[in-house]
Specification:
37% of the residues lie in helices and 22% in strands. It has 155 residues and is α/β, with parallel strands linked by helices. A hairpin with a 5-residue loop joins strand 6 (122-126) and strand 7 (132-137).
Length: 155
Amino acid sequence: MIGAAFLLGILACAEGPAVGKRAPDVTLAAPDGRTVKLSDYRGKPVVLHFWATWCGPCVRELPLIADLGARNSPDLTVLAVNCAETDREVSAFLAERNLTLNVMMDRDFRISKTYNVDAIPQTFMIDSDGLIRSVRVGAYDQRDLARDLSALLGS
């Protein structure tokens, strides 16, 4: 019986989000109340970035993520998924740092659980066909972000 439970656990892990697999379709909620599905962006590469205001590495990395969206806006969608904070906390944080991001809220960790996010920052690079092309656990530096973005955009 223990062997069967172990095997089911392995199979469950194998079915989770991974490089080369289709990104799970999730419904994302913006602070203004609008909702979108990840599949709404099919046909365009997506950077799905999980972060929080209390996370030091997230705070240091966030200007790179914001710049990524600003520099590549017609070719790329950047969705910055905030983990379990309030709209007010996130809005104040972004205003204080003068950052513009396409923020989506994961108030109950539902999206984080779907993507097996157990550490932040964590970033999923998803191609225009909806396949995960890279997963980064931990903060990006400029060089590594440029490398993964180049691979995602095929340049």
